């Protein structure tokens, strides 16, 4: 039997959602990362919890989790998934005036969670920017990338260090 092709295009070349009906459910996990670079005073304000709008990282964590859960509403042709875990971690890097963000998404399903992890990092970073833009419009969101993934037919993958 010929192997089924997983593509976003049908036989006529029209975009469609990939049909994963025949794929086996497996445990899948993806980790994504990114950074927000800012002025030292902005980073200190975030680290000390002194922002008048509240705890920037707590709000960014919630925003990232919500974004992962709604990824299929944001990314065309992305499958709606029943995530079993979404975790965001933030690392304050005073040497580089940065907040580093890491998201880990998990599920048991027929398709991977890479887009959910990437979306979580992106929206968390944008939330940090949004909450702090009044004091630092020069912030940059940098290097949003997939760090690792596991599960499915393609198995394990990890970015080069």
Automatic annotation (TrEMBL):
HAMAP family: MoaC_B (MF_01224_B)
Catalytic activity line of the entry: (8S)-3',8-cyclo-7,8-dihydroguanosine 5'-triphosphate = cyclic pyranopterin phosphate + diphosphate
Coiled-coil portions: none
UniProt binding sites for substrate: 77-79, 115-116
Active site: 130
Family per similarity comment: Belongs to the MoaC family.
Function: Catalyzes the conversion of (8S)-3',8-cyclo-7,8-dihydroguanosine 5'-triphosphate to cyclic pyranopterin monophosphate (cPMP).
NCBIfam families: moaC, PRK09364.1
Pathway in which this enzyme or protein is active: Cofactor biosynthesis; molybdopterin biosynthesis
UniProt keyword Transmembrane helix, yes or no: no
The EC number(s) this enzyme carries: 4.6.1.17
Protein name in UniProt: Cyclic pyranopterin monophosphate synthase
The keyword Lyase is assigned to this record: yes
InterPro entries: MoaC, MoaC_bact/euk, MoaC_sf, MoCo_biosynth_MoaA/MoaC, Mopterin_CF_biosynth-C_dom
SUPFAM superfamilies: Molybdenum cofactor biosynthesis protein C, MoaC (SSF55040)
PANTHER family: CYCLIC PYRANOPTERIN MONOPHOSPHATE SYNTHASE, MOLYBDOPTERIN COFACTOR SYNTHESIS PROTEIN A
């Amino acid at each position: 039997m010929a192997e089924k092709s997983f593509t976003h295009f049908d036989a006529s070349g029209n975009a469609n959602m990939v049909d994963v009906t025949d794929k086996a459910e497996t445990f899948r996990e993806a980790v994504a990362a990114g950074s927000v670079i800012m002025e030292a005073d902005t980073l200190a304000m975030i680290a000390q919890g002194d922002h008048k709008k509240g705890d920037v990282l707590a709000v960014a964590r919630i925003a990232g989790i919500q974004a992962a859960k709604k990824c299929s509403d944001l990314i065309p042709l992305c499958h709606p998934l029943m995530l079993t875990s979404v975790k965001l971690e933030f690392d304050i890097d005073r040497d580089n005036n940065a907040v580093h963000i890491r998201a880990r998404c998990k599920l048991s399903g027929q398709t991977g969670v890479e887009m959910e992890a990437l979306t979580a990092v992106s929206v968390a970073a944008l939330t940090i920017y949004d909450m702090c833009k009044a004091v630092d419009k020069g912030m940059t969101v940098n290097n949003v990338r997939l760090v690792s993934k596991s599960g499915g037919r393609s198995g394990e993958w990890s970015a080069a260090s």
